[in-house]
Amino acid sequence: MSVIRVEDADGVTHELEPVEGWRLMEILRDYGMGMEGTCGGAVACASCHIVLDPEWVDKVSPPRDDEIDKLDELPFLHQTSRLSCQIIWSDALDGLKLTLVKEPT
After folding, report:
1. Where are the beta strands (DSSP E) in the chain?
2. How far is CA 68 from the centre of its chain?
3. Which of 13, 38, 1, 3 is nearest to 100 (CA)?
4. pLDDT (tens digit, 9 = 90+) per residue, 15-32?
5. Taking the CA atoms of the chain, what radius of gyration do you get in angstroms?
6. Mean pLDDT for the stretch of residues 46-51
7. For residue 105, pLDDT beyond 70
């Protein structure tokens, strides 16, 4: 059984069981992690912004140009920011660690 380790906006870590072939955005949304996924994965809204743990950046497929462009539109960005709608779950990502983004106030 695979697992995703998700730190929520309050700093609480959750272990989620993902579904093979699903987008991370869908998994996070269906577990009630506060993920909107407004555009459904069309790279049009960036409401699924996450921060990958640095050790996982090179293990996840690299972002395409349209994802990079959408991330560049955000008012704040982290070195390892990604759109979770653009990462498809596979068991090769077992143990993936990420943080849900909390906008600065």
Report:
1. 4-7, 13-16, 49-52, 81-83, 96-100
2. 14
3. 13
4. 999 999 999 999 999 999
5. 12
6. 94
7. no
